[in-house]
Amino acid sequence: MRPLLPLTLVAMLLVAGCAGPLQTDGGVGAAETETGPSISVSGTGTASADADLAVVRVSITALEADAETARNRVAEDSQAMFDALTDVGVDTDEAVTTAGFRISPEYNYREDGRELLGYRAVHSYQIEVAPDEAGSVVDAAVGAVSTSGEGGIVVDGIQYTLTDETRAEVRAEALEAAVDAARADADTVASAAGVSVTGVRTISTGGDYAPYPRFAAESADGGAATVLQPGPVEVTATVSITYEVQ
């Protein structure tokens, strides 16, 4: 016996005045509109590329008796870091930007009140370099800043990502894959309903998503250098398409 599902779908597609869209578990809908029957689907596609940008985030901090002394020490340590980065080939005017700056009192809280320990100055930086330069940037920055007393440098994290140009290229590939996935779903539903896709009525895209790639960090022989091994960056894109059918 022939399955009843295709006949049911055809009836719902072709009878005027249908109450609303027919939804399937896969997020695919078929609906009758004033301009004729249609099928609405969504698709997801992914594409990847090797990271071509590393973003190193560091913070230089100092705790001193007064705010001006703390600010001055952070400024001196920052200059030392800039000089070290220049020595390893980083264009600090282009690659280094301030991510945050603050000076605030720091207290030791006790049952009978609080004791002022001093003033904490923190200057955070973002350093953008090629992926294979990230390890040398970390080593240069850490080696340039004194860790004596209450202060020093903290490596807040390293993000391997894509430049704007590369991201646009990868997103285009992901969108193509998403459109292909949506069309495959539309063809499947149309075939089951005994109709065929004839054209595109509407199409919209969603935002892309690119998670941080995993990477391994280790020291070279003798513990002299930081070696980072990033993985590829994957971009995911989505589309929603309404197809005309007959």
Automatic annotation (TrEMBL):
- Any GO BP: DNA damage response
Q: What InterPro entries does this protein map onto?
A: 26kDa_periplasmic_antigen, SIMPL/DUF541
The name on file for this protein is: SIMPL domain-containing protein
- Annotated source species: Halogranum gelatinilyticum
Q: What is the lineage of its organism?
A: Archaea, Methanobacteriati, Methanobacteriota, Stenosarchaea group, Halobacteria
